[in-house]
Amino acid sequence: MDIISERITIDDEICNGKPVIEGTRITVNTILEFLSAGDSADDIIKEYPSLTKEDISACLKFAAEISNRHFTLKKVA
């Protein structure tokens, strides 16, 4: 298991290795999809009462860190 932050982890045995909020099976992607659909942090917490606003902020921070990395594109043959 890799700990990406205090709140985001990646474990091959949980959700097929997708980043999740620590101690849950709620993926970062799930939270980002809610936010991109216009849901607020409060809306998400109503859906997942075990989450906190800090968990949601950690998902955004994770996404920002990933998108800031350098990527190399490979041509598909």
What does this structure look like?
It is a single chain. The chain is mainly α and 77 residues long. It contains 3 helices and 3 strands; from the N terminus they run βββααα. The protein has helices spanning 28-36, 41-47, 53-67, and strands at 2-3, 8-10, 20-21. The chain has a 3-stranded antiparallel sheet with strand order 1-2-3. Strand 1 and strand 2 form a beta hairpin. The termini are far apart.
**CATH level-3 fold name:** Arc Repressor Mutant, subunit A
Radius of gyration: 14 Å
Put simply, the count of helices is 3
Strand order of the largest sheet: 1-2-3
From the N-terminal CA to the C-terminal CA, the straight-line distance is 34 Å
CATH architecture: Orthogonal Bundle
Instruction: Note the beta-strand portion.
Output: 5-15%
CATH H level, superfamily name: Winged helix-like DNA-binding domain superfamily/Winged helix DNA-binding domain
SSE series: EEEHHH
Biggest sheet character: 3 strands, antiparallel
What is the count of β-strands? 3
Gross geometry: globular
Instruction: Please identify the structural class as seen in this structure.
Output: mainly alpha
Number of domains: 1
Mean pLDDT: 92
Helix fraction?
Answer: 40-55%
Class in CATH?
Mainly Alpha
Residue runs with pLDDT of under 50 for 5 or more positions: none
Features:
single chain; 77 residues; mainly alpha; Arc Repressor Mutant, subunit A; three-stranded antiparallel beta sheet; globular
Structure summary:
The protein is mainly alpha-helical. The protein has three helices and three strands; from the N terminus they run βββααα.
